Amino acid sequence: MKKLLPLAGLVLLGACVKFGSEPPPSLLSLDSAASVPVGKTQSSASAKTITIKVPEVSQELSVQRVPVQATDTSIAYIKNAQWVEPPARLFARLLADTISAKTNRVVVGTAQSLVNPGATLSGELRSFGVDAATQEAVVTYDAALVRKDSQTVEKRRFEARVPVSAIEAGPAGRAINEAANQVAAEVAAWVGS
């Protein structure tokens, strides 16, 4: 009986200790409004290339939670709202899909860029969440473009705002997706063909 007592204590303690938080019922992702058709072949022999780097982010966006600008100086996160992966990676993939579809450029990965880097698009994802004061999803991207064979850096800020019906996972995710697609389309037009 004395040997079972410590074991019982461990079992009770195990019921109280929790590692990590409960996952939300579902995870949010981005869906590209523009994509290359399945089966279409793209070649750097006949099209320009571009390397898209994952944007830099501040600490509030380095997590998979969805931030809400509660006041000018405070950030909160939407309950049960979490991205499937960090927002910067999701947004880089959305940019790649949109630029490839709208400009006919071949988007190359880091390893492929050693052979043919083409233009390089980098930048900072400044906002990727909800503004509580205006009830809008806000996506702000400060882009930096170096065109092929150029030493000049072109910079431009892109922003889209989309109304959010409620500051909850579903409505916020849909509005951020729409805003991100608007920004990606504007970036694609700027990058050009």
UniProtKB/TrEMBL annotation:
It comes from the Bacteria. InterPro entries: ABC_trans_aux. Residues 38-188 form the ABC-type transport auxiliary lipoprotein component domain. It holds the Pfam family ABC_trans_aux. Gene3D superfamilies: ABC-type transport auxiliary lipoprotein component. This is Membrane integrity-associated transporter subunit PqiC. The lineage of its organism: Bacteria, Pseudomonadati, Pseudomonadota, Alphaproteobacteria, Sphingomonadales.
